[in-house]
Design goal:
By secondary structure, the chain is of the alpha+beta class. The protein has helices at 56-61, 67-77, 95-104, 120-131, 226-229, 241-244, and strands spanning 29-32, 35-38, 84-86, 89-91, 133-135, 145-149, 164-173, 179-185, 188-194, 213-215, 224-225, 230-235. A six-stranded antiparallel sheet has the order 5-12-6-7-8-9. A hairpin with a 5-residue loop joins strand 7 and strand 8. Mean pLDDT is 78; it is low at 1-45.
Length: 246
């Protein structure tokens, strides 16, 4: 059954070996009866859960105008910070801690629809599909979520079976459709880029960044880029006119 209220316990000191781009920290924590704690890999971890029927109307009615602008501005103010501290509250230093803090600023609990054993990213995905919609094509809007899969070997079995392992927030979309994503990685809150039109290209011949490295070593033994590990976008917040026309 969904867990409506969770008491979150900060657990510091968790170290993750990173690559040049600093590997993400997101699937390391799981929802348990007693709170949010380091994830202990089960024998076989389920893949992405099916999308739920949306309950968008109730959620949108609770939000004030300007919620997208507010959450994007808050995320931008955290870039370069090693810790996730929002409204005087310290959140876990991983990708889900950042998203949880940003949406808590809007009085939304992105773990509301979590199921026991979910890692934090999967819990947020459940929330996003329950109260909004998940999509893969088209142009995202600032304030949308972006989910990634297989960003590291979560259950440490050497196989590609880890499901959703990382999440970020869309900041902007550039003229060439490169998406700017704000997320929390090992070194702190950073800005990465992702271009799904050229998912396997890090930079153009002219040196413009298209995709940042998100996994130190993929199934091929080579580092993998944001575009290669993309799973879906999700829109939860209201679409207002100043965003809809971008």
């Amino acid at each position: 059954m969904p867990m409506k209220r969770l008491h979150i316990m900060f657990l510091g000191g968790w170290v993750l070996a990173g690559c040049a781009s600093q590997a993400p920290m997101g699937g390391r924590y799981a929802v348990r009866d007693e709170g949010y704690e380091p994830f202990t890999p089960p024998g076989a971890y389920p893949a992405v859960p099916p999308a739920a029927a949306a309950e968008e109307a109730t959620l949108l009615a609770s939000l004030e105008p300007g919620s997208r602008e507010k959450v994007v501005a808050l995320a931008k103010s955290l870039i370069g910070k090693p810790k996730v501290l929002i409204d005087g509250k310290r959140y876990p230093d991983d990708c889900t801690g950042l998203i949880r803090g940003l949406f808590a600023h809007l009085n939304l609990d992105v773990f509301e629809n979590a199921e026991k054993g979910d890692n934090g990213v999967t819990a947020i995905y459940r929330f996003a599909t329950r109260h909004g919609r998940s999509y893969r094509g088209g142009r995202p809007l600032p304030g949308d979520l972006v989910f990634f899969k297989e960003t590291y070997d979560l259950n440490r079995d050497g196989r590609i079976n880890d499901g959703l392992t990382h999440v970020g927030l869309v900041e902007a979309v550039e003229a060439d459709n490169t998406v700017v994503v704000i997320h929390r990685v090992a070194r702190g809150v950073v800005r990465y880029r992702m271009n799904l039109e050229q998912p396997s290209t890090a930079t153009t011949p002219e040196g413009k960044a298209l995709n940042d490295y998100l996994r130190e070593r993929g199934s091929s033994g080579k580092p993998q880029l944001t575009g290669e590990l993309f799973y879906s976008y999700a829109t939860v917040l209201p679409v207002e006119s100043r965003f809809a026309n971008r």
